[in-house]
Every structure is written in structure tokens, then in C-alpha cells.
Amino acid sequence: MDKTMNKAPVVSVVMSVYNGAKFLDKAINSILAQTYTDFEFLIVNDGSTDNSLNIINRAKKNDSRIKIIDQENEGLVTSLNKAISKASGKYIARMDADDISMPTRLEKQVKFLDSMSKVDILGTGFIFFNSNGSELGRQGVLVNDADIKRELCLRNPYGHGSVMMRREIFNQLGGYSNDVGPVEDYDLWLRFAKISTMAGLPDFLYKWRINPSGISQTNSSLQHTKASELATSFRRTHKYSVTLSYILKQRKYYKNINNASYIRFIEDQALFIRIFRNEKSLPDAIKSAIAVIGAPSFLFKEVSGTVLRIRVKLLSLPRRVGRSFK
Q: What is the pTM of this model?
């Protein structure tokens, strides 16, 4: 551990906890065990009523890099903004209280950002795993700026907890917004996209626990609705276009995602708009959707239902000229 008292750390790892005692030890230890050691670890206890605060205090006794912010429950966005306002690191690394960072995560992200001064935000590939620790699947991350920004036209390209970003730019953008519901990360990435170069590391450096009581699972429906609203707004104003050829190119990217992610992918309105513009009938559109995505046959009902809902919406949309949907 770096024992220099007056030197600001390079990285500030930021985590908020609300009743996360069940997996908290493992999450904290995964950060303390990093091969890169020049960091501070800011943990917000956001009004937990379980044993979370005791676990954090116990960890702090053994490692002075931990800094605790204990408060009444204020929610994730307020907690993260408060922690980052107290951070002193050049880089901010996010971490969730039920996930795991692989040992070389910080080392590889710092090395990349140090060598690529124009990149302001960096995600990594991540592994889905369940409460028992069993791997459920893997999701890669797009690595170059242009592809990431095109992906932003459709959906969130990063796993929130895997991201490292420059604190100066985060502050310049005003931090996380409380006005967008449970998609504060997607909203922030969209604002990064307007002024920053974005990147991804293909290494699988983060483990995302599929936790039924976690924020992503309990707010999944609202997240999807809000994310669609953000994506639609971004597509209308951003210079990057989404074409059918681009979506076809992304097939391999989604190949290893679990079934729930497949369904979310095929529900994307922009994808179906492109398919409908190239098909003359509803059956052909359904067949094309399945072919493009490579979805297994058991998803046919989900695809069909989505097609019918979006088909109705499209009746009121003006037909655009050209091959790209902006």
C-alpha cells in the first residue's frame, strides 16, 4: 500500500451502498486486492439499515485508503455526486456494492488513460454472474470512439461499474443528473459523447452480479423506457447515424448476451425501423429480425409482439429519404 500521506492518489474508487451487506465484503476486497495501489476508496453508506456500515468500518480499520461517508438515505445519484465532490484522484473509477473488480482492472485502465490523453472515459468487458458466483455469460465492449457513439444512439454501451473517467471532465459536465430516473449513467455518457473521446478495453475486468434485489433488476422496466427516450433524443441531434449495415456488424457483439438482453436488443425501435424500411410485409420483417439478431426460435413470440407494437407506431411516422436513420 502507498503510505505517502500528502500526495493525492491517482484514482478515486467510488461506491454507494444501501443495504448491501450480503455481498459487500467481496466487493470491497476486490478493490483492496488490486495490483494497482495508488488509490483512495470512497464508500457512501446511504442510510443502510442492515450490517453494511459495520462491514465498511471493519474494512477501514485494516486499510486507510478507505474513506467513509455515512448519511441518511439520499439515493444513488446524490450519493455518487457527493463522494466524487470529495474525491482527489485524477481518475474516478466506479464500483457497485454487489459486484467484483478483477485484480488488474485499475492497473490496466490507468495505463490506458495515461497513454491516451484524449480519452476521457473508458469501459471494459464484463462478466455476468449470479448470487452463487456462477458465470452466466460475457459481454464485450466496443473499443473505439466512433463505434461507441453509434452504439449510444441505440443503448448504453458501458457497464456502469466498469467505467473509469477523468474527474475534471466529470465535474465540467456537472456530474450525474437527478432528473433522468434510473439511467443516470447513460445520461452522463451521452454528455461525455458531445465533448470527449470515448474508449473501451476488450479485457473482461469487471464482474456484474445479476442480483434480483439490485437496482438494475428492480427498475428494469423504467430503465428501458427512460433509456429509449434518451436514445431517441440523442439520435436526433448527434452526427452519427445508425444503419442496417451497422446493426448487422454488431451481431457478433451481442452473440454471448443472455436471453433477457437478446429480448431487449430486438425491441430496439431504431433497428426495427431500418428493417421495416427494407421489407414489404410483416412476416418478412419478423424473419429479417430473427436473421439479423441470430435469436433462438423460442424468442419468436417476443419478436412478434414487439414487431406488432412498433408497427402500429410506425404508421404515424413520415417516411424518410435515404439509407440512414438519424
A: 0.75
